[in-house]
Amino acid sequence: MRRTVLEKFPAGDPRGSRQAEEYARHRRDEGLAAEVVMDLDADAFLVVVPQQQSSERDW
Q1: What does pTM read for this prediction?
Q2: 3-state secondary structure at position 21
Q3: Where is the composition biased (Basic and acidic residues) (predicted)?
Q4: Which of 10, 20, 50, 54 has most Cβ atoms within 10 angstroms of its Cβ?
């Protein structure tokens, strides 16, 4: 599944994932299917949305 990253929050923040969760909630209130995932390599919480797949195929 391909995703688009909307925002990145450092995992070392004292508030943990709270900022990312709040940001995602606001995006969901706007109608986006935002969710929080952890990027272990970057040590960060990412707010992502699934990419819309076009109905056309480039064969």
Answers
A1: 0.80
A2: helix
A3: 15-26
A4: 20
DSSP 3-state assignment of 49? strand
Written as one letter, the residue type at 48 is V
Q: 3-state SS of the chain: helix, strand, coil percent to 5?
A: 20, 35, 45
Q: How far is CA 52 from the centre of its chain?
A: 14
Tracing tokens 């109905």 back to the chain, one arrives at 55
With H, G, I as helix, E, B as strand and everything else as coil, classify residue 6: strand
Residue 26 · residue 53 · CB < 8 Å? no
Confidence of residue 16 (pLDDT cuts 50, 70, 90): confident
